[in-house]
Amino acid sequence: MLKLKGVTMNFGGIIALNNVEIDVDEGKIIGLIGPNGAGKTTVFNVILGLYTPNRGYIRFENSDITNKKTYQIAVMGISRTFQNIRLFRELTVLDNVRIAFHKNVKYSLLDAILRNKKFIKEEEEYLKKAEELLKIFGLYEKRNELAKNLPYGEQRKLEIVRALATSPKLLLLDEPAAGMNPQETQELKNLIKFIKEKFNLTILLIEHDMSVVMDICERIYVLDYGEVIAEGTPVEIKRNPRVIKAYLGEGDFGFAS
Ligand SMILES: Nc1ncnc2c1ncn2[C@@H]1O[C@H](COP(=O)(O)OP(=O)(O)OP(=O)(O)O)[C@@H](O)[C@H]1O
Fold first, then answer.
1. What is the pTM of this model?
2. Domain spans in the chain, listed from the N-terminal domain onward
3. Which residues, in sequence order, are bridge partners of residue 31?
4. ABC transporter domain spans which residues (predicted)?
5. Cβ neighbours, 10 Å, residue 86
6. Ligand 1 pocket, Cβ-based, cut-off 6 angstroms
7. What is the pLDDT of residues 114-141, one digit of tens each?
8. C-alpha 80 – ligand 1 centre gap (Å)
């Protein structure tokens, strides 16, 4: 479904990605791990068209998306969440989701100004879909609260809801468990598996919490200094000497378990 081939990305003298090759098969949850500064977020940014790689190419389904713009890539069906939560903090939970739907609007500006039938019908549809998503994520009761007042774990969930509003085929999650307590993390694991099935998603996941990666990912890519140093199942990755070495000095990444 997604293929990165020979992707190299330089920032001035820094080689953030060096000849990166990643294959994401449809319907899978794939993990992307690596020590700090390894290049994980840069992988997301080249996929999403925020950066154009210096070398290599990226294919999504049957299209070359290497030089496509971010909005074109979104329309093709790739959506993301951010490492640093990006919500409209002063808006309600519900409005945060409704706004996310507006990337898909079919009515014209004139329809909106006139508030005609087409506009009202479409807005009603978005409201219904937004409410459905909030129910799935257990956030419906909080729909009228301001986003900034949600506990951290729920703000992260709301980010995922917003990313789903565009009906993506491929969802890129950037550290979804960051800042979550163990109970929230456990819920998140179940939720990611659930939405993958429910919405027919393929998921590429950056995560530092090894329990999340090892429990829900079917395959894992390990980046170190911008290079893919290993690829395999969770069990293979846990045992891989290069991976263990790369993580030495990085503190407790749960590899002992
Ligand atoms: N826009 C940029 N300009 C210059 N250097 C950058 C830029 N983006 C990333 N880098 C550099 O590229 C390297 C990879 O960074 P990246 O953020 O992709 O790592 P990461 O694996 O996501 O790290 P972390 O786990 O800390 O989020 C780092 O050396 C970083 O400083």
1. 0.87
2. 1-77+168-257, 87-167
3. 205, 220
4. 2-250
5. 11
6. 11, 14, 16, 34, 36-42
7. 677 776 777 778 888 889 899 998 999 9
8. 17
ipTM of the shown complex: 0.93
The alpha carbon of 186 and the centre of ligand 1 are apart by a number of angstroms equal to 28
CB atoms within 10 A of CB 5: 15
Tokens of 64: 């070359």
Residue at 135: amino acid letter: K
Which numeric CATH code is attached to 1-77+168-257?
A: 3.40.50.300
**C-alpha to C-alpha distance for 20 and 229, rounded to whole angstroms:** 10
| Atom of ligand 1 minimally distant from the CA of 45 | 18
Query: Tell me: the pLDDT tens digits for 91-115?
Result: 899 989 988 877 666 666 666 666 7
Of 16, 85, 76, 26, nearest to 52 by C-alpha is 16
Q: Which atom of ligand 1 is nearest to the CA of 43?
A: 18
Which residues fall within 8 angstroms of residue 191, CB to CB, at 6 or more apart? 137, 157, 160
